[in-house]
Specification:
This protein is α/β, with parallel strands linked by helices. The protein has a single domain, classed as TIM Barrel. Helix content is 39%, strand content 11%. The chain has an eight-stranded mixed sheet with strand order 6-5-4-3-2-1-7-8, with helices on both faces. The chain is globular. Bound molecules: iron/sulfur cluster.
Length: 361
């Protein structure tokens, strides 16, 4: 195991120039037993917007966890050594008691956390979340919709307004997701520049689905949105421009290696979160609104029938969960979700750190 003296956090930061990694409070003493660094929770599958392309809200669960149960669940994540929790949905702000969960995460755990929302909530809720200790907010800046002019986007997007509101309220870390599609590919750079100049971190992800139920299959995706080989040259130029801009110190969340591979994987969607030869843990634990463990943010999987977050307290069950996760995931043809790819990049760094691998530096 890596000794305390070997634990050169600055060298790790230099190796993974990633804002999220910077916030991890890794405990060198517990490093050897750490299996997974991050988790995502679907606080609810309910939403107040119900976009037509969203599959999440189309799955209705018999019962969703109460906030009290979510508090128990995040305590389990803390005991497993998880360093970062992303609270998503559905729409997390429709769940009563969200601010209690935030307050618990802020005051009673050592994990960092963020809330992803469609920003359709009022000033009172914004204040309540900020006062509860919200540290990071992720808005969906919907550049997928109508042919929105940048000025209109600046003025009217609920996401942008909410980011400004939360900045005013002192929420320290603000982020926006931009989905690159065939519709907006030529406008992405303007939006990236605008957000970064406003002090908002930008997450970029190629579109992974179209309209309809077969959202994870590129063949079934809406042709007017999906990225195909005909977009490769424009995607390559966009990646280069984003990387250059990131090098100037712009607030761009994905790593250069993610952005660089976007023209290939963004089209083929063949990146895989698992090693096809060797079983291993998921890059992120993903927990559904009923507490069931999911294969990933994209798949509920067979795993959800057998494993819930509440079983993972038991060490043997946790190991069994890891084998079952790998079996489930290895049937997947792939994706290029930026959150999953970056989680895997950080997971690989963790593994190198644990073995003290010299090729890290
Ligand atoms: S869709 Fe999910 S299981 Fe498949 S490669 Fe992506 S993250 Fe992994």
């Amino acid at each position: 195991m890596t000794s305390k003296e070997d634990f050169d956090i600055q060298a790790i930061k230099d190796y993974v120039p990633d804002a999220l990694w910077d916030s991890f409070k890794l405990n060198p003493e517990r490093l050897g037993e750490l299996r997974v660094l991050e988790a995502s929770i679907y606080l609810t599958r309910d939403c107040n917007l119900k976009c037509q392309y969203c599959k999440i809200i189309k799955t209705e669960l018999e019962e969703e966890l109460s906030i009290e149960r979510w508090i128990e669940a995040v305590d389990i994540l803390e005991s497993l050594g998880i360093r970062f929790v992303n609270i998503a949905g559905g729409e997390p702000t429709v769940v009563k008691g969200l601010s209690r969960l935030i307050s618990h995460l802020d005051k009673n755990t050592t994990m960092d956390f963020s809330v992803v929302s469609n920003s359709l909530f009022g000033d009172n809720m914004a204040r309540e979340l900020a006062e509860a200790g919200l540290r990071a907010y992720v808005a969906s800046v919907d550049v997928l919709g109508d042919d929105v002019a940048l000025d209109d986007l600046r003025k009217s997007s609920a996401g942008i307004k909410m980011l400004a509101k939360l900045k005013e309220l002192g929420v320290p870390y603000l982020c926006a997701n931009i989905v690159v599609s065939a519709q907006n590919i030529d406008k992405v750079m303007d939006v990236v520049r605008y957000l970064s100049d406003e002090g908002v971190w930008v997450n970029i992800c190629p579109i992974l689905w179209g309209k309809g139920d077969k959202w994870d299959k590129i063949e079934a995706a809406d042709r007017t949105y999906r990225l195909g080989p005909e977009h490769k040259a424009r995607l390559t130029a966009l990646s280069k421009e984003i990387i250059e801009y990131k090098r100037t110190g712009a607030l761009i969340l994905p790593t250069e290696q993610y952005i660089e591979a976007m023209p290939d994987y963004g089209i083929s969607l063949s990146w895989k979160c698992f090693d096809e030869e060797k079983p291993g843990p998921p890059p992120r634990l993903t927990i559904d609104a009923d507490g069931a463990m999911m294969t990933c943010i994209n798949m509920r999987g067979d795993l959800s029938v057998k494993h819930s977050i509440f079983d993972l307290k038991d060490k043997d069950l946790f190991e069994e969960f890891i084998s079952d996760w790998w079996r489930d995931a290895s049937s997947c043809t792939g994706c290029y979700w930026s959150t999953m790819v970056m989680a895997q990049e950080r997971q690989e760094t963790l593994e190198r750190l644990k073995t003290g691998s010299s090729d890290l530096f």
